[in-house]
Amino acid sequence: MSVVAGGVAGVDQDDPQKGRLPLQRVPNEGAPAADATSPGLEAPAVDRTRAAGSGRADNDPTDDPTGDPADDPADDPAGENDGTAPYRTFESALEAQEEAALEARYRLAAEEDPQAGSLLGALLLRRGDLDDAEPYLRRAAASGIRAGANNLGVLLHQRGHREEAAQWWRTAAVAGSAPAAHALGLHLRDHGDEPGSEYWLHQAAEQGHTGGAYALADLLEHRRDPDRAERWFRTAAEAGHREAAYRLGRLREAANDGDGAEPWYHQAAARGHARAALRLGIHLERRADREGAARWYRQSAQGGEPRAACALGFLLRDAGDEVGAADWWREAADAGDGNAANALGALHAAWGEGEMAEQWYRTALEAGDHNGAFNLGLLCAADGREAQAEQWYRRAAYAGHREASNALAVMLLQRGDTPGAEPWFSKAAEAGSVDAAFNLGILHAGRGEQHHAQEWYARAAGQGHAEAALQLAVAKERRGDTDAAAVRYRQAAGRGSAEAAFRLGVLLERGGSERDSEDVDRWYGVAAEAGHNRAQVRVGVRAAERGDTATAEHWYRRAAEGGSRSAAFNLGLLLAREGGEAEAMLWYTRAADAGHGRAALRLGLIAAGRGDLATARNWCEQAAQHGPGGVTERAERLLEALRADLSA
């Protein structure tokens, strides 16, 4: 039994399609407070269509906290290259003429009609002419026009006069303006007045304001009220708010409702939400829909999400396209993804390009991924640079990297520094390292502290460590608790331990129950297929007992070719019975040369029968030396007879 250092390069986890667009960095979409400084204009109650020549007089820009044009075609300036440019130019000119006509009409009426002044102020505000817009909006607001009060708040907010803006938003909100209630709610939230913020955001949401519903849900989630948050995220998402759809998906996923999360991720991803596309790709990959996962990973990566590029790289690697994987990992790593840099390092290490591997591991470390330091330690250890390996392990271990702590402890233990190793094993085990927990078991067992050893073995076994479960089983069998031993052997065998499968077969066979016979064969078979020599011999013996000589020969050969002297002897016996004496002698000889007493005795008897007394004496001497007891006695009697014949 030996300690486990933990071994492969630390990378996590993913379409051979070509023609990828380069990765582009975009603003961090959907940050919860991204809409806090985007109060919405409100058109006056009259002339609500095209009041300011924009076609969106009633819309609140904060309905889309990401500012992404994909949520509203009216924001999309495309057309220059789609065959509609002449139409767009004509339409733009027509809109400009209409806007100019509206402005002239509003100016004529504004002095006498506050409503016209409100419309003119809104038009000028949209144009960015704040100085000209302000007096018209102030006059409209003072006249009790709700839209004028809201839009005056927007103007003042843009000028940095936020408290005065809030006063006018309050006036408009009390009069029933949903955009003003939304803006006032955000203002109060940013000033720490959560109850006031919740009240006004609720007013906006109840009036159907999408941004208000989203902001209210965000506030409720922040206050750990997921049920009410989900209601309002759903309201906003159903109105087309992509960030709300994404957040709703996250809520459902947090509630372990992956099936419920996926449609919302799909809705957000279809509207260009990069992180939603990433999550959707992850869900599809878990369902083994690799083609679908690759499509959404690619969209997410092209939207600026390096984690998606990294995941796509793993998909490609698993499909055998290491070069394609490296391309995506490189793009992700260049965008600051440490996991991708580690994956590149591991790939170059596998290609035998140590210098490149080291470079990428350092890049990962510079990106803040301490896995890079651990991988540098592994790389140095593999090259025999023990001092450098220890430095890198220590750097990662001090940063809390549990497998680096375990690897450092193994290095110290192998150097004989047990007092220095134990604290690092403990730190790694407490952080969740299964190997470290197992290694602590070995450490305590070596000191005879069986109770502590069993505790650590049980902890490691509970986390899936097969060897730890095997050690527990062996201890229980030694104490005579065969039922508990069988449970642990099954646990270890189920996790891939061939030794546990073999020992379980032996335990069941010793029980002698007829109903366990199939189980015995099954577990011996599991161990034999995994290359366990003694299990292969047992499978052969049981097959021979049933008269199945073909199966017996197959397993004897496998075990003998793997170095089992018992299998070599048994194969010789089987071949001899079947008439293959010449080949049988070869296997007897191999077994005897490996120290098998019965094989040596049989060779001695065969040689004596042929009259080759000197050869017979040599084999009998080997048989007497190797035993076991009965073989030794027979060999010594034969030797006495041979000596008499040789001296006669």
Written overview of the protein:
Mean pLDDT is about 85; it is low at about 5-35 and about 45-85. The chain starts with about 80 loop residues before the first helix and ends with a helix. The chain contains 34 helices and no strands. It is elongated, with a radius of gyration of 39 Å. The protein has helices at about 85-110, 115-125, 130-140, 145-160, 160-175, 180-190, 195-205, 210-220, 225-240, 240-255, 260-270, 275-285, 290-300, 305-320, 320-335, 340-350, 355-365, 370-380, 385-400, 400-415, 420-430, 435-445, 450-460, 465-480, 480-495, 500-510, 515-530, 535-545, 550-560, 565-575, 580-595, 595-610, 615-625, 630-645. Helix 6 (about 180-190) packs antiparallel against helix 7, helix 31 packs across helix 32 (about 595-610) and helix 33 (about 615-625) runs antiparallel to helix 34 (about 630-645). It is an all-alpha fold. About 70% of the residues lie in helices and about 0% in strands.
Structural descriptors:
elongated; 72% helix; Tetratricopeptide repeat protein; single chain; TPR-like_helical_dom_sf; mainly alpha
Number of strands: 0
Structural class: mainly alpha
Shape by Cα distribution: elongated
Percent helix among the residues? Answer: over 70%
Give the quaternary arrangement of the chains: single chain
* Main pleated-sheet profile: none
Strand fraction equals: under 5%
Rg on CA atoms, Å: 39 Å
Mean pLDDT: 86
The N- to C-terminal Cα distance equals 55 Å
